[in-house]
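Hey,

Quick one before I head out. I ran the complex with flavin-adenine dinucleotide overnight. Inputs first:
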Amino acid sequence: MKGEKQSDTLSVNVGPMRLRNPTMLASGILGISQDIFERLYNNNIGAIVTKSISVDPMKGYANPTIVPLGNKTYLNAVGLSNPGVFAFSHEIMRNKFVPIVVSLVGSSEKDFPKMISFLDSLNVIGYEINLSCPHVSKMGMEIGDDPEMVSLIIRTIKRHTRKPISVKIGIGSMDVVEISRVAVESGADMITAINTVRAMKIDVQSMIPVLSNVIGGLSGKAIKPIGIRCVYEISKVLNVPVIGCGGVSSWEDVVEYMIAGASAVQIGSILGNSDDTFFNRITSGLKRYLARKGIKNIGEIVGLAHRY
Amino acid sequence: MKGEKQSDTLSVNVGPMRLRNPTMLASGILGISQDIFERLYNNNIGAIVTKSISVDPMKGYANPTIVPLGNKTYLNAVGLSNPGVFAFSHEIMRNKFVPIVVSLVGSSEKDFPKMISFLDSLNVIGYEINLSCPHVSKMGMEIGDDPEMVSLIIRTIKRHTRKPISVKIGIGSMDVVEISRVAVESGADMITAINTVRAMKIDVQSMIPVLSNVIGGLSGKAIKPIGIRCVYEISKVLNVPVIGCGGVSSWEDVVEYMIAGASAVQIGSILGNSDDTFFNRITSGLKRYLARKGIKNIGEIVGLAHRY
Amino acid sequence: MPIDIDLMRLARISETVMETSSVKTLVFKDRLGSKASAGQFLMVWIPRIEEIPMSVMVSRREGHAAVTVKKHGKGTTALFEMDVGDFIGLRGPYGNRFTISTEFTNVLLIGGGTGLVPLLRLAVNITRLNIRCTLIIGARTKDEVIFEEYARKFLSDGKGKVIVTTDDGSYGLKGTASDGMVKTIGEERYDCVYTCGPEIMMKKIFEISKEQSLPVQASLERYMKCGIGICGSCCIDRWLVCRDGTVFDSNQLSRMKEFGMAFRDKDGQKLQYK
Amino acid sequence: MPIDIDLMRLARISETVMETSSVKTLVFKDRLGSKASAGQFLMVWIPRIEEIPMSVMVSRREGHAAVTVKKHGKGTTALFEMDVGDFIGLRGPYGNRFTISTEFTNVLLIGGGTGLVPLLRLAVNITRLNIRCTLIIGARTKDEVIFEEYARKFLSDGKGKVIVTTDDGSYGLKGTASDGMVKTIGEERYDCVYTCGPEIMMKKIFEISKEQSLPVQASLERYMKCGIGICGSCCIDRWLVCRDGTVFDSNQLSRMKEFGMAFRDKDGQKLQYK
Ligand SMILES: Cc1cc2nc3c(=O)[nH]c(=O)nc-3n(C[C@H](O)[C@H](O)[C@H](O)COP(=O)(O)OP(=O)(O)OC[C@H]3O[C@@H](n4cnc5c(N)ncnc54)[C@H](O)[C@@H]3O)c2cc1C
Ligand SMILES: Cc1cc2nc3c(=O)[nH]c(=O)nc-3n(C[C@H](O)[C@H](O)[C@H](O)COP(=O)(O)OP(=O)(O)OC[C@H]3O[C@@H](n4cnc5c(N)ncnc54)[C@H](O)[C@@H]3O)c2cc1C
Ligand SMILES: Cc1cc2nc3c(=O)[nH]c(=O)nc-3n(C[C@H](O)[C@H](O)[C@H](O)COP(=O)(O)O)c2cc1C
Ligand SMILES: Cc1cc2nc3c(=O)[nH]c(=O)nc-3n(C[C@H](O)[C@H](O)[C@H](O)COP(=O)(O)O)c2cc1C
Ligand code: FES
Ligand code: FES
């Protein structure tokens, strides 16, 4: 798959998924509305990953849930608020042309077949399993740090769907390569790395932690070098397509992730600083870069850093 | 210790160490020259932590070893280069007035008594044990992620010195609270959190990882919210003085770390962006803040965020 | 150094004004807020309680901004109970703004409740351009009429006029704000209708305007978490109210299936307006 | 957007000049480098091989900078072997600069080897201020004399003069650069001595100057990793060469115990000059 030639400069194969370009919406960003998905797709995004969906609706935490820290860096503890799989399956029921990956979150392996039964017949190209939300107990990182639970969840999901699944990992208390290995050995088709990194902000004047949940996840520019490292480490060791995520804000960042080993790249918080031309600017930047280097298809740069 | 009143506004007790103000030099920053230590002390720093010293001299990695990433954020893989304990004990032999904490690094528990035998009779106020360098195998994080090794090293050190020791932890593949707990139960007097975070940077034009070691550690502004979170988590759960470190560049950052639970705060990479007035600006900022809040001694703000 | 409007800043409340028994204006020093355009909002942090979007109110004091809050749930009640000397956190101002064409000669502003806040800011700008301006203040009952005195003062001297409507007829015209609208557009020719308030009211106004081919600009509200186009919670059809709005024009409004019909709850579920 | 000099930028070598069999000048487009002051240096990345400090050489081409490298170890050899079209990475320029007083009328510049690089930049500035300037070019032997032609050209027309010394007498004055210095200060009165080159040479020059009460500015070299005052590897006594230097004046030099005596190795061990 790596380096495989394509007719089109930017089209990529991400495991069994074929995308017109390597950009994807990161989960939790603008991720609950079919109308918004269509707008983003019309604005040239490669694919959508939805907000993480749970069996039942979740209200999430009180605000502040999202705190800009400056320099394209953000802290959030949304608390996985989502409309639940029932309402969400209605949301995307009329999806015709958008390549949608549904992000799923659950507190036990039993949650996942329930959700898949609602979603599997819809126009959905795959699932991303969120095992790495750093600030919701019993649903995120606590599961991602438990290899047996990870394995059980993935094996259960694979028995209930033939669609490709990516497992989203984060900086928890297990080595990223080890937890990815567990995921792949249990049947994951792809790995998404990384989720936000556990972090915190205190307002010094009021002496109060700003997030209502006190602790949240760091995203944006600050975590890019960490994400690049994780993608490099995982893709160098494991024979699995990796989807890069964390701090992408320019076409150069997309290239950096792909050279590190990512087959596609998710874009999240930066969308708060961008407009409808964002993905066009990314794709034309990528095309110019490839032309300058004389590269026919962007897949050829995937993992070039593994030489070092 | 927390909240204990002091005659002087900024003086703090950090476990058994008493400092004139809560600022300390982070290990590895300008950390090999007694002349520089004296200059920093004359410029009003509270204490010095030296470069991590090993039994034998270490050349470290080839350059580039330090890569500025912009916005006060840095990536480094110096490779623990240091002159070795013999040369270094000569370096600080004539130390009269600088409160020096020597950072120690080793590849087995046997290394530490050797180094202590050179250092313990010198004018040194304590040791910091670096178990968290994220990019040197067999010396850094690999040890920090092994609770039995951590415990063995600390118990060994405690048998060979009566000086206070701090254990420096990082974001590895063990939970920061758990590894701190192991350290404290093994006899550590203090915890320093955090070291740099494993990260990487690829130059997209040449498609080459910039650090000669490929992977290094992220420091500076980008990691501050992660450091704040770690200090909060550790100090909230464990009854041990915590020394905050990571991304401090202003007096507000010092305050944020202390409210999170730090008894003192180390300052590292930002010194690349500062001049001789830096610590005076920090201490006068702190004094103004305390005056405005009507606080007599800075120790009173330590851990105020634990209310939440 | 340029100031990052996204970084939360603390502001000390320097003055409060009780507008009604459940509506209060809080004034505070905030240079960025003082320069906000009509239609923009601030994300207001009530420490440890909530962070909520609030339209920026005009403040007579240089370098100061204000918000006018109506007691509602947890967040607005806590804000309402704040007093001089208390601190709030601020981000923003965010969002787009009402636009005014210099070719306009007479415009109609229709507000309900705290929806009047952005319209007052707008009215100030409009009168500065020597455009005549009629402001309809809609309320359920006499006690809930706000800003009337203030509006009458600066819409005097031929600059414009103020019409008050109450649902129960206890003051001014009996009827809704849209009833007031029907009456005044029968009497005068307007170039544009600006509105902010309960969505059902705005929907009605939009429909009346459509029949009359009157252009409308409406400032909408949706549940907001980030205020900066990240979370998606404020979406209405394909638009984000925080980023593409809060102000939408007739063209956009007519393409919205959800306007006046449906909104999303805190968890993102779509609910119908009753 | 302001350009961050710390962020590594790639530059393509556009021209090379062989100065001697082991010294080569590489020219590349780099706006920041082209504006460097005399005494400043760039951190030059030779991808996958090394990153090393290099003084910024004058370049005649607008918007271009250059470095002149002497083949030495791994890094300098790789750089020396680079050709037109190859890419290097750049950070900086870093460090302070030589200072010139407008009251000076005649100054002496003494350089050895690639230490001439910052002095050429300085000489250009000095002659622009209509200050006379004598440049001593020190070399071990005739083949190692660099920049003579270039220097003679722009120090002509009464702007100054060039003295070449060779240790073996194969060209110019026989002797070291400091021998040349002794001779010329016997003949002319200088207001200041500027020097860059082997430290033993600079130490000698400093001592001669001290006897004559001549102020000195010397550009020093130490092992550098970061170039920006973080790592401490470049320290000499209480100073950091990358940040407090590279240029130090007589006052500082006289307070240094390590100047001409000791330097630190890659691991930070202090070694004595032989
Ligand atoms: C752009 C904009 C400008 C606004 N300007 C004003 C103003 O000037 N004065 C004023 O009094 N009110 C204003 N509001 C409404 C105000 O934000 C809500 O009344 C407030 O957030 C309710 O919070 P609560 O905790 O009191 O209510 P809750 O008890 O939490 O909820 C009550 C209802 O308020 C709404 N609401 C709650 N939280 C939010 C939120 N974060 N964002 C949007 N709506 C929410 C929902 O409809 C919810 O059902 C504005 C809203 C928006 C979107
Ligand atoms: C401010 C400054 C300006 C300089 N300008 C020039 C110049 O214009 N032209 C030129 O040819 N040389 C210059 N040098 C010297 C040049 O940087 C070294 O010769 C080069 O770094 C050697 O690298 P190497 O890999 O070839 O040598 P190695 O084989 O690694 O080492 C040989 C010796 O070179 C020195 N050295 C090695 N690495 C460094 C380093 N990172 N920083 C400083 N010294 C080092 C040490 O003394 C070492 O013992 C300058 C040095 C400094 C500090
Ligand atoms: C507001 C917000 C909400 C998020 N919600 C989710 C989520 O529901 N599921 C998930 O897997 N990741 C979630 N994330 C993490 C992002 O998908 C992404 O991994 C992270 O933000 C890093 O990418 P970025 O730096 O481009 O934002 C969320 C991030 C943000 C900022
Ligand atoms: C160049 C460099 C070298 C470092 N060397 C060491 C070291 O030897 N031992 C150690 O414990 N930490 C070392 N660190 C980590 C710092 O002590 C500190 O934990 C980290 O940089 C975060 O702090 P900062 O953001 O203030 O730089 C080094 C950091 C840098 C940037
Ligand atoms: S409030 Fe978050 S996108 Fe609008
Ligand atoms: S080279 Fe690092 S401090 Fe000077």
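The pocket of flavin mononucleotide (ligand 4) is lined by residues B 26-28, 51-52, 66, 74, 76, 78, 80, 103, 130, 133, 168, 195-196, 219-220, 223, 245-248, 267-270; D 230-231 (CB under 6 Å).

Talk tomorrow,
K.
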